[in-house]
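[Q] Does anyone have a clean structure-token version of this?
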Amino acid sequence: MKFKINKNYISILLNIVFLIFSLTFLVDSGLHRLCIYLATLLWLIEGDFKKKFNQLYEQKIILIYLLIICCFLFSLTFLSSSIENGFWYNKNPNGYYYILNKPIQFFLMAIFISTSLKKEYRFFLMIGFLFQVTYLSICSYLVYFNFIDLGIRELIYMHKNNFAVALLLGISVAYYFFTISRYYILNFLLLFLVLLFSHNIFISGSRIGLLILVVFYTFLILNYMFKNNMIKMKNIIILFSSLFLIIFLLLNFNNRIIIGKNNFLKTFNDGNYSTPIGIRIGLNLVSLELLLGDMNNFLLGLGMGDTKTKFEKYILENDRNKLIIVREPHVHNQYFQIWMDGSIIALLLYLVFLYILIKIRVEEGIKNFKYLAILIFIFLGVSTIFYNNVRYLGLLSFAIGIILSSNNEFKNKIINT
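[A] Here you go.
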């Protein structure tokens, strides 16, 4: 008796796993890792690899990301004298385990979602993600007002920039549902969520998150101003709500700008690198000095396993006043970190990655989601890095998966018409 696998059932199960992932990857429950393992198994059983690989080849995004990983592996193997740390952390047995455990493992979901997500499930994935962000936002307010205890705080805790990225993508998803909803109560609820998330970014204290949000709302206003259907009530509501939020955020953002300016002056006038701004200035200055001061470093980077060691040695020999910055887990700059860990080729590949993401065509409703994701990758890259943090990687994988699956639908419509 032959055992025959029904691929339709496998595909449905795989999409259900995607849905569970969209509900869990921001909460530190361990379930998101299980989803990755289950999705890998089901994706392999599902088969149809010729179609999947053709999609990945045509879209290029996944291939470029994997080439960046190859640059990391080359740097770790042939340019590093040590593979003990692999990055700036001492948590990993070696660099190969680090690369497998983070930038490869978590980005697998982008591959699976982009090739196997059914159109009808994309709607549910975005609802799942919005539900997860809403839950975390409510918990954040409860923590802010001291209504929940420390144990719950630890469960939902995220760094302010991680949280800002989640809220930013939550805003774009809420706007997406607002544009397609026909129910007044649901529209009101979605606008309330936009206000809730936007204010939450402010109280979280993420300067870069606020900056991205202001840029995104400015883009929304300009986008709708040049559309011919301005008389539609929804577009007017979006315009006025966006304008209100920009004014609110800029007024409140002013205080944080003043604090940042004072920290900036303290760094350059007093040589004090102990403030958040000072640490980032110091890390960027030393990165530039190392990369531009030696042709080998300029072309090949510092060797992924040796990055922190060389960084610390340079500071000890040239400016001990900056020694405090070596305590940081990374250089707080995606572009410099990729350059140092993977060579200038890896940096150029990352810039091509962003360019292709900008050019990729998606369905009309997903455009705002795509543009906000791109703004996050570009702007947040000057403050932090994505490939060392599981929540960033989860957000990156989710966003890329949704964008590429929409690109597949866009191309299918062109072919059918």
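[Q] Thanks! Anything notable?
[A] Residues 233-270 form the longest helix (38 residues).
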